[in-house]
């Protein structure tokens, strides 16, 4: 079978490409610059890539640039979307590529009769920003949708970009008869295949290097589980709707404690910016993701894999 992965050189996408090649698929990967070795060398090193991986140039904002690539594919995994904080112009840098880009890719899928299903990499960011108060005994599930106005008020621009992109994807898919499934992971960590640091790996580095830290609470999930969920969402005919993916929601102070216990020689920050907790923790239902056949890796294992990889690649030394 032939499939397409958008933004193929990214952190999550690279693991999806690796798994697809291992399972015998022919993969068409899209990148903005297929000649950039930082984005492609690790893909060319994957087993099966010489025979079954082709890379194509496509930009999310270039209308129709995915048409010819998607034509003939059985499935499209749309992962490409900018992920970073503090943009100068949120609309141009994050929201337009996320929303218009998703509609651009779906528009190409609509034209390609071969495409049976589209798997969109959404986020827990598109799930949890609601008016419902969160606390350790609240269980969040896939029925909740983040409210754009709340994201905007909080200036959570990346969260807003993912929320609007997923909303637009569901509307377009319903209106145009596209079989869409979304994967909604929390912060994704684990080993990096690519040589550069993506935003979620930077968070772990921040918790190792920064002198003090803000005590946010985040949900965490392993990149290999996220890749498997994408592939199973295509391979399982009954898969549908959204699949939230969170092993555990914990505060940064807890993460720092675990790092300290695991690696006593690492100079982790001694204190938070203040003792106030930035946000409460909560639980996330794993019923749907388990039903898809994905067992979530424990956070501690994912954290260890991340730090070992950061060490191997020279981002930390101890
Ligand atoms: P990366 O930064 O590693 O990858 C993002 C990819 O998006 C890049 O490969 C980049 O492609 C592509 N991209 C960005 N802007 C454009 C554009 N204008 N046109 C074409 N491609 C573009 O991030 P991740 O792997 O972490 O994220 C991948 C997906 O997963 C995103 O949709 C993100 O929102 C989502 N996600 C990530 C989480 C995480 O913690 N990492 C958590 C939840 C969801 P190029 O190579 O061409 O530059």
Short characterization:
With 318 residues, the chain is an alpha/beta fold. The protein has 13 helices and 14 strands.
Give an account of the 3D structure.
There is one protein chain. The chain is globular and about 55 Å long. The chain is an alpha/beta fold. It has 13 helices and 14 strands. Helix 1 packs across helix 10 and helix 5 packs parallel to helix 8. The model has no long low-confidence stretch (mean pLDDT about 95). Helix 1 links the parallel strand 1 and strand 2.
Layout of secondary structure:
Layout: E1 2-6, H1 11-22, E2 26-31, H2 37-44, H3 49-52, E3 53-57, H4 67-70, E4 75-78, H5 90-111, E5 117-121, H6 125-128, E6 139-140, H7 148-153, H8 157-176, E7 180-185, E8 187-189, H9 199-209, E9 212-213, E10 217-222, H10 223-235, E11 241-245, E12 248-251, H11 252-262, E13 271-272, E14 283-284, H12 287-291, H13 299-312
Helix pairs in contact: 1-10, 5-8
The protein binds NADPH dihydro-nicotinamide-adenine-dinucleotide phosphate.
Discrete helix count: 13
**Beginning-to-end CA distance, first to last residue:** 44 Å
> What number is the mean pLDDT?
95
The major sheet is characterized as: 7 strands, parallel
Low-pLDDT sequence parts: none
Number of strands: 14
Q: Which oligomeric form is depicted?
A: single chain
Strand order of the largest sheet: 3-2-1-4-5-7-11
Helical amount: 40-55%
User: Which cofactor or ligand species appear?
Assistant: NADPH dihydro-nicotinamide-adenine-dinucleotide phosphate
Order of helices and strands: EHEHHEHEHEHEHHEEHEEHEEHEEHH
Give the structural class. alpha/beta
């Amino acid at each position: 079978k032939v499939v397409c992965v958008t933004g193929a050189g990214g952190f999550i996408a690279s693991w999806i490409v690796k798994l697809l090649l291992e399972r015998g698929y022919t993969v068409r990967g899209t990148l903005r610059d297929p000649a950039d070795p930082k984005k492609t060398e690790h893909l060319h090193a994957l087993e099966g890539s010489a025979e079954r991986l082709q890379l194509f140039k496509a930009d999310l904002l270039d209308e129709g640039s995915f048409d010819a690539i998607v034509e003939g594919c059985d499935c499209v995994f749309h992962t490409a979307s900018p992920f970073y904080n503090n943009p100068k112009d949120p609309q141009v840098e994050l929201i337009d590529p996320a929303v218009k880009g998703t509609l651009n890719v779906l528009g190409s899928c609509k034209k390609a009769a071969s495409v049976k299903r589209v798997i969109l990499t959404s986020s827990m960011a598109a799930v949890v920003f609601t008016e419902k108060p969160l606390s350790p005994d609240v269980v969040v599930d896939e029925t909740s949708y983040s409210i754009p106005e709340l994201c905007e008020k909080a200036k959570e621009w990346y969260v807003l970009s993912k929320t609007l992109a997923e909303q637009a994807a569901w509307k377009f898919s319903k209106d145009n008869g596209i079989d869409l499934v979304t994967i909604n992971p929390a912060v994704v960590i684990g080993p990096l295949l690519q040589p550069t640091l993506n935003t979620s790996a930077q968070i772990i580095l921040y918790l190792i290097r920064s002198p003090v830290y803000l005590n946010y609470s985040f949900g965490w999930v392993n990149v290999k589980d996220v890749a498997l969920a994408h592939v199973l969402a295509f391979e399982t005919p009954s898969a549908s709707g959204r699949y939230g993916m969170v092993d555990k929601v914990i505060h940064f102070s807890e993460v720092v404690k675990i790092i300290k216990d695991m690696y006593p020689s690492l100079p982790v920050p001694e204190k938070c910016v203040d003792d106030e907790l930035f946000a409460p923790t909560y639980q996330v239902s794993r019923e749907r993701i388990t039903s898809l056949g994905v067992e979530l890796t424990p956070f501690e294992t994912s954290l260890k894999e991340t730090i070992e990889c950061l060490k191997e690649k020279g981002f930390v030394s101890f």
